[in-house]
Fold each of these.
Amino acid sequence: MKALEERLEKIKGELLELHRLSKRAVELTINAISGDEVSRYEVEKIEKQADVLNTDIENDSLSAVALFQPVAKDLRFLSTVMRLSGNYERITDLAWKVARFRISEGHFAEKLKTMQIIILEMFDIVEKALEGDTGRMRDELIFRDDRLDTLKEEVIDDLLGSELTHESLSILLSAIHFERIGDILSKNGARIIFINEGRRVWIK
Amino acid sequence: MKAVFDVRNLSVWYGEKTGIKDVTLQIYRNRVTAIIGPSGCGKSTFLRTLNRLVELVDGVRIQGQVIFDGKNIFERDVDPVELRRRIGMVFQHPNPFPKSIFENVAYGPKVHGIKDKEKLAEIVEDSLKRAALWDEVKDRLNDSALGLSGGQQQRLCIARAIATNPEVILFDEPTSALDPIASAKIEELMIELKKKYTVVVVTHNIQQAARISDYTAFFWMGELVEYDRTEKIFEYPENELTERYITGRVG
C-alpha cells in the first residue's frame, strides 16, 4: 500500500506545482499586457512547462491506475487529477493568449486588473482545497465566479458602440479569457469536492 | 427486485467465539452478491449459514432467521439435504470425486433419485455446457476427473453443483487456488450463471468482487459494515472503514 500512497503523493505534488505555475502565469498577465516583455516571456515559458507537467501527471496517473487498480477515494483522485491537470494547462494557454495583448492604462486596464485579483483569490481558495480544506470553498468560488461574469459583461457593455480597434478587441478577448479562467477554477473546485466527498456538485 | 434470501438478525457462535453478529440483509435473485472482508471477519461463516453447512461444526450456535423462499431455513421441518440441493456450493479448492468426469456430474442427480441413463446423460451434458466445460471434455467423459487441470476441475465442480438444479450457487473463494487465466474463466462463468441462478461469492480479491458482482457486502469482525450496489461500494462507500479496507489501508 505504501507504494501507491507514495505515488499518489508524488502526483499531488505535481498537481500543486502545476496549480502554482498557472497562478503565476495569471499573475504576470497584467504586467505583460502593459508592455512588460520579461513578464510576457515568463508566461510563455510557463505555458510550455505546464504542457510538460500536464503530460507527466497524465502518465503518472494512468500508470498508477494500471499498476495498483485503485478504488474509492484513490480512484476518484487519479481519474479527477487528469481532468484538473488538463484544466490548469488550459488556464496557462489562456493566460498566454492574454499576455500577448497590449492594452493602455486606464478604465479597461483597471477592470482587467480587478478580474485578475479575483482570479488570484480563486487560485488561493482552490489551493487550500487541494491541500484538504474544502470548507466554504463552494460558496467562495460561486461568489467570485459571479463577480467575474458581471465584470466581463460590464467590459462588453462599456465597449459597445466604440470603434473596433486592435486594442478594443484585445480588451474584449482578455475579459472573456479571464472569465473563462474563473469558470475553469470553479470546475476544479467542484472536482476536488468529488475527490474528497464522492459527490458531484456544480459550482456555477 | 425479488429477494431470494432475507437474512434477519443472524448471529453465529462457535462455542464462546462470535462468528457473525446480528447480520441483516437481503440477497437478490439472479444477481451476483460478493462478500468481502479480512480473514476471520465471518465471510465464510455467513456463506455456510445460507445452506446450513455451518451446522456441521461442533459447538455451533445460531440465532436469527434466514428466510429462503418464504420459509426460515432453521425450522425443524426443513430438510438440510434438500436445502443443499437447492443451494449448491463450490469450494476454494476443486474437490472432484476420484471418479470419471461423467460420474462426478451425475452423482448428485443419482443421489436425488434419478436413475434413467438417458436423463442422466442429458443432465451431465447440460451441466457441463452451463459450466463452459463441455467442449473440452465431451470426448473423454469416462476419463478420471483427477486428470483435468485445476481450472477445469473447478468448472467440473460448478457443473456438479448445477446438476442438482439449484436456485442458488454459493462460491467460497472459488478462484484462490487457480492461475489468472483459469480464474478469469470462472469469473466469466459466474457472470453467465446469474442469468439462471442467484450467485453468492466470498472472495478475498476485492477487484474480483468489483468485476463480477452486482452487490457487495463488507464484513468486519463478524459484523456487516456496509452492503450496497457494488459500484457504490467501490466508488463512493459510505462507511470510512469500508473505504479504508477496499483501498488497502486496513485489514
Note: The first strand of chain B starts at residue 3 and ends at 14.
Amino acid sequence: MENINLLTTYLNPKKYDASSGYRDIHYLIRIDSDFLDEEQFSFSKNVTKILRYGSPIAEDLAGGFLPVNIQYPLVVTRNGDEVEYYFKRIRNGITTYVSLEDALLPNTNESHFLPYNDLTFIPIALQHLHYYHPEQQKIYSVEIAMPEIRVFGHKAMDYNPKDLGGLTNGEYELDYKNASGYTNAVSDQILGMLEQGSKANLLRKININLYEQAAKIYWYPKIVVEQGKIALYYEYHRILNDDFEIPFTDGRFQHAIKLTFNHIEGFLAFMELTYFRNGVSPLDLWEGSGFRKRDCFKKYIEIVTKELENRVNNFKSKFSITGILAIIYYIPLDFFIKEQNLFRQQKDRNTILGEQFIWFAIDSVLKIPITNITVNVEDITLKLFEILQFIQQYKNTENKQKNDYLLDQLLSKTFEGKSYLLNFYHKMNTNNFVRYNHFIYKIWRKSSYFKRDHEVYKNSSYFTKLTDKDQKEKKKPWKMLPYTADKTIGFYTSNIDAEFDENDNIVFTPDAHWFSDIFTLFYGEKARGIRAYIEGDWQITYHPLYPVSLPNPSDKDAIRLQKISPALLIKASEDKGFWNNVGTAASYTFDILTSLSGFGNLAKFRHLARLADAAGYVKNGIRLKNTFYVYKAAKGAAAAIEISSGTINILLKITGLEDTEFGKALTNFLFWLEMLTLSVDLTDAISGGLKLNAKIISKESDLLAKKLDELVAAKQIDEADRARVIKEVEEIGGVRYKIDNFIARNPKRKIGAIRKNDILKELKTTISGEKVALAIQKKEIKLIRLDEEEFYKTIKKPSETIESLKKDKVVASQIKDKIYIRNDSPVNKAFGEIVHEGQHALDELAGLFDDSVALRQQTSQITHDGISMKSYVDKMTDGQVIELRARIAEREFLLEAKVALDENYNSVAAMVSFILKEYK
Amino acid sequence: MDLKIQKLLTDMIDNFDYRVVAKPDNSLIRAKKEIEISVVNSRVVALFGWIDPREHNLPDFNPNKYVIYERDFMSQEVFEEVSGEFKLVFEKIPELNYIFKLKEEHVEFNSSLSKNDIEEIYEFVKTNYNVPIRDFQRRTR
C-alpha cells in the first residue's frame, strides 16, 4: 500500500512558507524511460518525482523504499518502456555488472558479477543515493534542488501528477495513525494494531482520481457531498492557465485531483493532516481572493456542524458519546471559537457546540472507561478541557475568573463520590496523565486557588502529629514541604509518601520509599546510600490544589515540579515515579519481578484495579461486546493477543495464592498484562514476560483447572468461563492451540451451548472449515441450530413423520442457503456436520446443483487424501457427486481436527462405497 | 397481486427449484450472466427466505426487516463487503425494488406495499414454492 500521506504533504498550502522550515528540497527522481527520454533532466515536467522537504532524506523513507547500498555506479538497459537496473564494476581492468535483483540479495557474491556482453548499458547521471521502490519495481535517485530551482507560484499551486511519486488512481488508506502523535512506544503500537485490525481501516479509505494535465490549480478544493460521500475537487485555475483549455465535461470543469472519502472520519483526518496540522486555521477566511479558502472552510464547518447535530440528535445511549468524541477529535480547536456565535444563546447552535455541550460530553466520558483504545478518549477528554478554556477566554477577559470557573467546576462536580478533578486524575494513563496534571497546573497557576488563604483550604489543609491518630490537634499546614526527589540509576526516589485520604485530600508523611527494598535486593549494601530518610513524626494533609512550596524542584522529578506546586502535582510525580520504577526494575532483569510479586496480590494495585474495572464494563457487554483486546507488540510478526474481560476477572479472583510457582507465574502474568496497558516502554520484556508466565501457567494447567473448578463449584464462574480462561492463557503462552484441543477437551459438549462466534473461530483454525466459516460470517449461508422437535418440523417433507426422521437418525440438513443442525449434537460430531452441510449450501449457491458439467469437472479435479477423485466421479450420479464433495470436506476437517473416524470414513474407498450404497 | 411482483416471485421460485428450467427472461438468470452466480443466489435466496412463511418460525426471523449487518459476528469490514454485494444485486436486478427496499444495514419492504400486499406475497410463495428435499441434503448418523 502506498503511503498517500505524500499527498497531504503535497497539498499543504503552507509548504513554502518561510516559517515552515522546509528549506532543503530534495527530489526522488524515478529512473525510468521517461527520465531517459528527457535526457536525464530531473526537473522536466515529464519526469516522475517525489518532493522531500528537509533532511536527512532517508529519515522518512522507511516502509515504501529500500535503500540501495551499493558502491558501484548505476547503469540501465532499455527495451522500449522497460528499464532494467544494473551496477557497473571495473576491477583489474575487467568490467562486470550485477543486476539489481542480485544486488538486493542478502548474500550477493562474486558469481553474481557477470560481463553481460549482449546488453547495452546506459550510464545514469544521478549517482548520489538510490532507493528501490519494491511495489513499482523502480529505482528512485536523489536530486538535491538548489533554491533557485523552485518553480512554484504563489497564487496557485503547480500541479503535476508526476510529482506525486507514481501515485495512481484508485483506493488508498490514509495513514493518520502516526500523524496523531503516536510514537513507537508500546501503547502506540498496541493502539496502532487495534486500529488497523478494526473498522478504522474502512474509515480511512480514500479514492484518488488524478487528471493527467499538469497546470496551475487552486490551493483549496471544492467540497461537495455526493451520494452521501464527501468529495474534494481540486480544480484548475480559471485565470492562470493560459496555455491550456480546461475541459468542460458533465456540466463541470475538469478537476485536477478528486478525492472521495468513504467516511466522514477520513475526510476530517485528511483536513487535519493537510491543513490544520500545518497551521492553516479555518478562521483565516480573508486571506486574499482566488484561493477558494473561504468556500472550502465554510463547507467544512457546515459539514462538521451537521454531523455533530446528527450524532447529538441520535444520542441514544451513553455510549453514543464515543461517536461524538470521534468527531471532536479531528476538529481544530479554532473551530470552537469560530464566529463566536456558536456560544451565543442562539437556539439551534448553542446546545450543540456551546459550553453546555462540552460539559455534557465530559459528564458522559466519565461514565465510560477512559482509555485510548478504539477511540482516543483520553486525548479527546483533554481536548474538551482545552475547549472549555477557549470558551472562557471568549466569555471573560479576566484570566483568573476563567481559570477559577474551570477549577470550581472540576471541584464541585462529582461522580461516584469523587470530584471531577480526582476522577480524571485516576482515569488518565501514561503521557495523558502527565498532560492532565500539567494542564491543571497551568490553569491553577493563574487562578485564585494559587493563594493560600482561599476559602477551600481552611478545613482541608492542616498539620498533625503522626502520633495523634485521631487528628485532634490540627495546626496550620507548612507552606514549605521538605520534599526531595532523586533519580539514580534509573530509579526515582523521594523522601515523602503521598496518599489520598478518604476526603480526597492528600496526606504527606516522611518515609523511605518502599522501593528501596528493591534496591537492597538488587544492589545489596550499596543501596544504603540511595535510601533517604528523614526522621520525623509529622503528617501534613493538603487539599489537592493547595499551593506547596518546594525547596528544590529539579529535573529529577518524574513529573516536572515547580517552586510552588499544587499538592496534586507532587502526588502525580510520585505516582508516575512509582510506575517508572516498576518499569525500570523490569527492564533490568526479569528475576526482579519474582521478588516484586512477593508483595503479592496485584489486584490491590490502583492500576490493575482499574484494568479490572474496564474489563467489568466489557463483561456487561456495554463496550466492545464481550472482548477486551490486549495486543502484544512483538518484534516482527504482529500477532494479537486476545484476552477477554471475563478471563482477566477470573484470574484476578485466583490471585493471592500461596507461594507456588503457579501463583507467582499468575501474579506475574497479570503484572505484565498491566504493564501492557500502562505502556511502559518495554516491548520485548512485555511480550517475553507475558509469554513465559502464560507458559508456566498452562504447564501447571492441572492447578489452574483445579482453581477454576473451585470457582465453578462456588458458582462464581460457569463452565464456559472455565474453558475460555484455559484457552486464552494457552493461546498467549503460544501453546499450539487448535480445534482438536477444543473438541478433545469438550467432546460431549452440545453445539447449541457454544456461541456462534466461537464456532466460527474454531472452524477457522482449519483449512477445511475456514471456507464455511467465512461464508457464514458473510451471511452467504446461515447456520441454524434448533431443538430436536423444531429441527424435524423444519426439515421434514410433507409426506414424512417426525418419528420416521428420528428413526433414520437424521442429524443435520441443508436447504438452500441454510445449514440446519440439532442443538444437542455433541461438538465432536457437530463441527464436521456443519462443514458437510456448509459445503452443500456453497455448492448449491454456486449453481453446481443445476450444472452437471461444472459439477463433474470441478469434482474430478479434487485430490483427497492423496487420491484423485476422477475415477469415482465417472461412476457416480450427480447426486452422489454432490454428496461426495460434502463428505470430502467433512473428512478433511475430521482429519485436521484429529477426530476419530467411523467406519464410513476410515478410508476414501470406504467413504465412496458408502455413498454409492446409500445415495441415488 | 401486481403483475410485476408476481413475475419477480416466479423468477425467484423458478430459480430455486431444481426441477424447473428457468425461462430466458428470468431476471435472476439475466443478472447471473453479468455477476458471479453465487453472489446473485446467496443474496436473493436470503431475501426469498425472508418472505417464505416456512422460514418465519426460525429463531432470528424479524418480520420488519432482513438484517444485513449482524454485529454479533460480522466485522465492519465484512459488512462493507456484504453491503456492496447487496447493492450490486439490487443494481443488476432492479425488479427487486418492487418488493424490497435496500437500506444501509438492512432490507425492508417497499413502503408502497400494504399489509395485505405482503400477506399476498407470503401466500404466493407458500403455495407456489414446494421443492422436495433431496437425499443428499440430509445427514444421518
Note: Chain A has a mean pLDDT of 72.
Amino acid sequence: MSLSVNQDVDVKGLVDKVLEAYPEKSRKRRAKHLNVLEAEAKDCGVKSNIKSIPGVMTIRGCAYAGSKGVVWGPIKDMIHISHGPVGCGYYSWSGRRNYYIGDTGVDSFGTMHFTSDFQEKDIVFGGDKKLHKVIEEINDLFPLARGLSIQSECPIGLIGDDIEAVARAKSAEIGKPIVPVRCEGFRGVSQSLGHHIANDTIRDWIFEKTEPVAGFESTPYDVTIIGDYNIGGDAWSSRILLEEIGLRVIAQWSGDGTLAELENTPKAKVNLIHCYRSMNYIARHMEEKFGIPWMEYNFFGPSQIAESLRKIAALFDDTIKENAEKVIARYQPLVDAVIAKYKPRLEGKKVMIYVGGLRPRHVADAYHDLGMEIIGTGYEFAHNDDYQRTTHYMKEGTLIYDDVTGFELEEFVKGLRPDLVASGIKEKYVFQKMGLPFRQMHSWDYSGPYHGYDGFAIFARDMDMAINNPVWGMTKAPF
Amino acid sequence: MSDIAVSQSADKVLDHFTLFRQPEYQALFERKKQEFEFGHPDEKVAEVSEWTKSAEYREKNFAREAVTINPTKACQPIGAMFAAQGFEGTLPFVHGSQGCVAYYRTHLTRHFKEPNSAVSSSMTEDAAVFGGLNNMIDGLANAYTLYKPKMIAVLTTCMAEVIGDDLGGFIVNAKNKESVPQDFPVPFAHTPAFVGSHITGYDNMMKGILSHFWDKAEQFDVPKTESINIIPGFDGYAVGNNRELKRIAQMFGIDVTILSDVSDNFDTPGDGEYRMYDGGTTLEATAAAKHAKATVTMQEYCTTQTLQFCKEKGQDVTKLNYPLGVGATDELLMKLAELSGKPVPDALRLERGRLVDAIADSHTYFHGKRFAVYGDPDFCLGMTRFLLELGAEPVHILSTSGSKKWEKQVKKVLEGSPFGKDGNAYGGKDLWHLRSLLFTEPVDYLIGNSYGKYLERDTKIPLIRLTYPIFDRHHHHRYPTWGYQGALNVMVRILDRIFEDLDAKTSVVGVTDISFDLVR
C-alpha cells in the first residue's frame, strides 16, 4: 500500500468547488472544517466541536441523544425516563441495538420507552409534580429496577423545573438512586456535551452518593470496559479477549451494564477506554479521585487488537503478558483465514467514512488489514483531541470533513467516487441510490459485533457483502 | 484462561444471531451475571415476571396517571415533516434544536428505506436566551442556496415553542434580509411537541401550507371546479396507497388532487442518481386545490383543522377513517361517484367482486379469531371495521392518540356487528397497558407496528405489521392497503400469518402433526 491517497484527484480543488455553493458567511465558517491531510501533520487541520450552521443539514444529534441514547440508555437495570414531550424517547426507542441480557420489563428495561409525555399544562405550570408521580408509578410497577435516571428534554431547562430537588426527595423516599440529567437538546453543539453531562452525573449521583456493592471482592486483575455500548454485542466480543488473557472485567460502560457495575468501577486497577470521546471524562475523574489509570485501546481489526492486547497486558504481570501472546497466537489462524478469504475481494477498494466520535479513526486499520484504503474521514461530534489522534491512522491526501453537511458529503463522494461509503442511516440510501455500496457504521447495519477477533470476521464478511453484491451492476438499464 | 475452541470461522462466519449462543459466550454471560451484575435472584425475577401478567398488575397498570410506557404516538413535528415532504420540491425546515431533525429523518428513513431530507435551524443555548431569529435568517439562506427547493416548509420543535418564537414574523424578517426571494413560498406551522401527536402535526402543516396558497387575495371569487381533493393523512403505506388512489381516480376519469403525495418522494429508483426531491403535489395544483368542489380526508384525526379550513373555503368535505375493506371502500367510491357525477367504473365493480370472492374462500380461518389492534386512531377504526367484515373478532383496540370521542366511534363500529360484542376501545393508553390486556384477556393475533414485537415475544401472540412504523420487515409500504386491491393485500397478510401459525402449532412429528395439513 502506498503512503498517500487521492494522488490522482485535485482534492483541494474539490473542497473549493463545494464551498463555492455556500452563501459567503457560511462558506467562511465551513471552510474551517474541511481539509486535506498533509504528511507529518500533528492534527487534521480542521476546527471542531463548533455550532452547526443553520439550514445546512447537519447529521448531528443533540445532548439528549448523547446522554439517554448513548451513555445512560444501555444501563439495563435502571429505568431511564425521557422527561418532557413524547417524541425524543419515541425516536430513540430501541434505535441503537445496545444488546443486553435480561427479562425486559421485569429486571431489565433497555428496549422500553418511558416518558412523562408533557402536555401544555406541564409546560405552563411546570412538570415537577408530574415527575414525582411518574417516579412513584414506575417504582410501583417495576419493583426490580435498581434505580432511575431523568433524561431532560429541551423544555425542562427552559421552564425552570427543579429536577434535582425531585430526584433527591424521591430517591430518599424509594431508597434507590435517581439521577437527574440536564441533557436538554439545545445544550452544546452536538451529542458530545450530552456524553459529558451524563459522565458528570455518574460522578455526582452514583460515585458520590452510593456505596460499592457489598460482597464484591477485588483482585489484582480487575479492569473495566469503558465506552463500549455493546452494539450488536461488541462489548462481549471484547470482554472475551480480556478474560482470555486472564483479566476480570468488573464493569461494562455502558452496554449490557448494570448499576452495580457502575458502583464497583472505582475498584478497578485500570480503566480501559474504547470510545474515548464519550467517556474520557469519567476516566479522567477516576484517575484524579481514585488514582485509577486509564488506557485507550482499539479492538477493530487484528493489527490493532494485537497491539492493544499487548499494551493492556504490559500493565500487568508476566502471566498476563504470556497469556496475551497465547491469545494472539490462538486467533492467528482465524485472522489468516479471514484475510485469505476476503483480502483478494477487497484489496485496493477505497472507503469514505463519516460517523460519530471514535470510529472515523478506530476502524481505519481494520480496513487496512483487508487491504482497503481510507480516502476520506470525518466526525459528527469530535473535538480537537480526536483529530490529533486521527492523523496516526490516516494517510497523506485523506480528505477530512468535520460536521459534514448533507450537501458536502454528497459532493465529496461524487468527486472521489469511493468503492464504499461507511456512515449512518440518514446517509445510507442517498449513496445506495447513487449506485454505491454502503455500510452503516453506527449500527453495523444490523450486523455485528465488529469488535474483537470474532467481530473482525463479521466485519470482513459485511464489507465484502456490500462491495461485491451484484445489485451495483444493475443500476443502469441496458436500454 | 479459557481453553474453549474458537467458534468463529472464516468459512462460516457467525454473527450475533449465532455467535453468542456458542459455549464460550454462554459461559461469559454466566460469569458476568454471577460475579458482577448483582442482579435479583432468578426466582425473584420469575415471580415478578408472573406478577406482571396478573389481573392485580393490570389494575395497578391501568391506574397510571403520569407515566407513559411504550406509546403508539410520536410528536407533532414528524407528522408535519411528512406532510410537507409530499409537496413538490419541498424542504422541511425545522426551527429549534437540531437533534430532533436527526431523529425524525432517522425514523422515517428506517420505515421507508429511503433518504429523508430536512434541515434544522440548529438553535443552541444562546438562541434559547435571545430567540432564534438569526438562526432563521441564516438558515433559510443556506437551505435555499444549497438545496434549491421550490418551497421551504417551516415547522418548530418544542424548544422554539417554549421560548415563543414567532414563525410568521421571523419569516418576513428573513425575507426582508433576502434569505430567500420575497415571492418564494415559505409556509409554516407551529408544531409544539407537547400538544397532540404526529397526527396533529400533520394537520397543522397541511393547514399551514394550504393557508399559504389559499389565503392570497387574488384567489377570491374564482368559481369552483369539478376537481376533488384527497388528503391521505399520515400513513406508513403512503407509497402504495397514494398510487392506488391515483389509479382509482384514473379509472373513474375524475380530476383528483392528492394534497401531500409522498409516493414518489419516498420511493425513488436505484438508477445511479440520487433525487433529493421527487414527485409530490405540484405547487400549482396546491394553489388550484382551493377551488376544488370537495375535499375528502382519508384520516379524520389527521385533518381536523384542515378539513374545517376547507369547509370555510366553501368545499364539500368528507371524513373517512382509514378506509379498509369492502364497506369502507364502497363508501369511498360512492362518495367519489356522488361528487363527480360519474358512476363507479365497471372495472372497480369487478375488483370488488374478486375481493368478496377471496373473503368467501378464506372466511373459515377468520371465524372465531380474536384480534388486538393498535396504532393511530384512524387506522384502528379502519382495521376494526375490516376485521368485522372478515368475521373475525376485534377485542382490544388501542391508540395512545385516541380521545373519548374516538372511543365512542370505535364502540359504534363494534356495535354494528355481532362479531364486535367482546370489543373495547382504549384511548390514551399505551403498549404497556396492552401487555396487561393481552395477558389477562388473551387474543389470537395482534395487529400493529414493529414496536409490537416485544408484545409478541412476551405473550407469544403473533404480530401482524400493518401500520407505521415497520422497521423490521421490508417493502410492505409499497403495496396498498386501501381500495379493494389494498383490502386483498391486507387480508393475505393476515391469512399468511394465520397459516404460518397453524403450521407452527401442528409441526411436532407424531404429536401435533395430525393437523399438519397439505390443503388448507
Note: The first strand of chain A starts at residue 34 and ends at 36.
